[in-house]
Amino acid sequence: MGAQRVKIAVCIKRVPDMDVRFKIAGDGASLDETGVKFDLNDFDAWAVEAALQIKDKAGQGEVVAISLGPTQVQETIRKALSMGADRGVHLQADRIPFDGFSIASALATELKDGGYDLIFFGKLSPDSSNGVTGPMVAEILGLPCVTAISKLDISDGRGTAKRELEGAQEIVEFPLPAVLTIDEGLNTARYPSLKGIMAAKKKPLEIKPATLNTPQVTIEKLELPQDRAAGRIVGEGSAAVPELIRLLQTEAKVL
Amino acid sequence: MAGRALRVLPAKHQPPLPADKLLVREPLDPEAVPMDVVFVGGGPAGLAGAIELTRLVRADQEAGGTLGEIQIAVLEKASALGEHSLSGAITNPVAFRELFPDLTDSDFPFRAPVKEERVYFMAGGRAQRIPTPPTMQNHGFYIASLSEMVRWLGEKAESMGVNIFTGFPVQSLVMDGEKVIGVRTTPSGLSRDGTPGSGFTPPTDISARVTVLSEGTRGPLSQAWMNAAGIKSDNPQIFALGVKEIWETKKPLDAIIHTLGWPLPNDAFGGSFMYPLTPNLVALGIVVGMDYQQTTLDVHVLLQQLKTSPLFSEYLAGGEMVEWGAKTIPEGGYHGLPKKRYGDGLMIVGDAAGFVEVASLKGVHYAMQSGMYAARAIVDALKKDDVSENTMARYDALVDASYITSDLKERRNMRLAFQGSGLYVGGFKATLMTLTKGAFPGGKIDSEPDAHVERDVVPAEGFVPDGKLTFSKLDANFKSGNATRDDIPSHLIVGQDIPAEVAELYVHMCPAGVYELDRDRLVVSPANCIDCKATDVIGPRWTPREGESGPKYRLM
Amino acid sequence: MANIFAFAEARGGELRKVALENVTAARKLADATGGEVHALLVGGPGIASKAEQLGQHGADVVLVCEHDGFTQYNPEATTAVAAERMQSGGYRAAVFSTSAQGRDLAPRIAARLGVGLVTDVTAVELNGDKVVVKHPMNIGKVMATVSMSGTPALVALRPNTYAPAQNAKAGRVENVAPIGDPSTARVVVKELIQGGKGKLDLAEAPVIVAGGRGLKAAENFKLVEELADAFGNAAVGATRAVTDDGWRPHSDQIGQTGRLVSPELYIAVGISGAVQHLAGMRTSKTIVAINKDKDAPIFKVADYGIVGDVFEIVPALTAAVREARKGH
After folding, report:
1. Does position B500 have pLDDT exceeding 50, yes or no?
2. A126/C141 touch (CB, cutoff 8 Å), yes or no
3. For residue B248, what are the β-bridge partners?
4. What gap in Å lies between CA B238 and CA B218, rounded to an integer?
5. Among C140, C158, C184, where does a domain finish?
6. Structural domain contains residue C191
7. pTM for this one?
8. What architecture (CATH level 2) is domain B1-25+35-188+201-556?
9. Which residues of A touch B203 (CB under 8 A)?
């Protein structure tokens, strides 16, 4: 008992649908976005869900969805609002930099005075595939940070989390306020309900310019990997095994 | 075996649609989301209707009228607009121009104007150029992608304040007596056995003063409602199945191409098309009437065979197939139209009503136009605060007085000339019809529903895809963007004790590989379904399932 | 002449293989400019005994920070000592691993130093005053060439990309004190739970043997496990059909909604190649398929295929692999 008001920020990113064949844009260093569908990053959706569950459990609170990028990210913020976040903040930037430290610095500036009990990130986003923003924000803000959380319990201003390692797990304890990054398996993100989508249209979405520093990490070039060469049937039945072994040793060099 | 060849009558094995699920007579959920007008289906008909309605309401408000705020919703089952839209397409811009009088053709989402067109008659893989039949002349029209047109219309609608909800299929009309008072969406997150799994979301009710069914081809709600309302048509609605691919080509294509003949058997109606979206991005497909005469006719395989002929392979060689899809097309034309397309609180527009002109392969502009007429009738009804069928009737009056009806009437016997007449005699009759603008042959050619057409059981032709020019259904399905979860419960209603030769019919009928024969047993993989509705026409019945299932077309 | 920093990741008092990968990669970079490799080894009492291995793989200097407070991974205290060392050490670049620990640690250090970090790096080289890396993006569908300015440039390597190579150097041990008291760190790892049976994780395993419906019954998965065992460094995966039927846990599932894997060698046993499964393993370096149906879609994706009865072929293959790997 004892409903405590909890304030949670969730930093979210709009990412392209990964199920497409990508094309490189004319500048050779970015992707051609024509016809590509974008959506809220899955890991961020789990982060939003985690925040909503904590708020639901606390009985009262506020979940704020924050995203950095061009105008289109407002659609992604609205999705988080449709899921149940209370308000959104759009940090306007023409392009999302690749440099995680640039993004983290801009986010930290926004989060600094927000009085958040918890700041959630998805573990990584599959497009830039770096996974650094969360812990960097924590470091800039001087906050405790736990990454790759697959189980989470928050009570009385402290938290316990389980982290997934390779073939092992860690149980970690930490005080609030804290920055947490969410991994697959923590929860299943709720679908926005029709009611939620309607309500989201009326929720506040603040737009402000992002304060971006000069990036130290830049994409020089993007390339599409070669298509696989055609394979072949080596033979039939167990009689083909010696030949397969030979090929794996001499040709593929994996044995 | 001696005597007559074995024949299959699909209707014998087809269960009825579950009317008690599709039409629900109970009060709406007290938490129902309140809307004024709901469009079921975010295709060209629904979106054009929503845009026109918004415009008219706005005009009324600006003129100091009494309508007030009207909440309009478009419910679309795909995860994004356009993902379940598929057409050739060569589009007549007339409806776009009427809907957006302040824009010009260059503003519209078309790829290119039709320049040259060529028609071929194919025999044994060889193409013989023939003069373009008058019904197929496309000068002044545009090559376009329906997915792109729908996304464009969607953006316009959203910017005008239409509420578009993607990923929300409608599973039922909610009725109060004969009045349609709203709709109910499908649940999501059911386990394979139909019980709620993780991420379960229950159905949502939406109340509406008027519900417009813009479900598209072979819509289950439209069928169920028309059956219940006893609405008939002169001829039953009949369908064709189209399978389509999009290719990036090395060799540029400079003309739109249509073909007749091979690889369709002479007793099947249909043909093929190949259109350049850009000179090196080509849409091609084959369309075959579903009254075909052999149980093992396989439209997907026919398309793969078609591609091997030099006329096509010279463009496709060295290129890459980037998308694949399929969809049925209502082909009944004028005599197949339901006599009444409205009821208390309800209207039916677009392909769901059958507004497709077969001979010219056109449906998009009719769909949009019908949506716009529905909008006009709805505004009148809302102003009078009367959505009973007496006011809804204005919709039919508008359609009947329009080019939709006159076009369909002029070409009314074209398709039917082929049913039973084969390619040559049918072609001759069709030519006469064109030349006499429909006067000959007069009267009406009778037809039967496709499921009532008996087919010969013949062994299937072997087909081995090469994986470069020709593809298996599984590979093709991958290219439709279909990522439906493997454990989705089945939305298909299969008849009892399906014999092997009927199962074979299903295996070849379905372009997406939903049906397989395992020894003699029918195996159903519902996750493969791409919602083309061919199954509903002659096989297991299609019912609405979880939102975001099915294909994700980008350029179809 | 550029000195390169390498983080020697340890867990539970043992060096992890990625520590040697980091040192090997750092050695390559250092050699390009005639510089030194300094490895940082942080751990509880006794960790110093692992320093020698680092020297054998190319570390000129091993900075050892041995303290009770590091018996479990201590992110804040490790960040403090690493950042301090890197700041004072004038390193050109610092090499970490994109392991779970590396993903947790490297960004903190980068932010503390105010420098750039690229993770999941598959190649790194020095180029003028920049460090240039290759970084797969968009689930491996796009490859980025990224340049990093600022020093030190932090890179976190994709595990299994730089094979550990013996290249003995002095490995001179320098003891380093923690910054402040590690036990005052706010984030505390209370417990390390080792995974059952010492199983290799699908994300890390260089070889994956996966089984599908073609195995007919749950108990036949033994064949897959034995083949994996024969390799010695293989993990076991499964298709959605098989995990749905409960033959294997969901964490074994490879496919679109399961795991995306990219091992050196992927062996698909009794898997037909449904669309969703292929999406999960398409980017494996070498794919071998064993299936009784020669038209199964998996053969389109496989580099090598054997058609026939899996119950006959897999045991034969297992024996042959054991033989081939003798003395490895």
Report:
1. yes
2. no
3. B281, B320
4. 10
5. C184
6. no
7. 0.88
8. 3-Layer(bba) Sandwich (3.50)
9. none
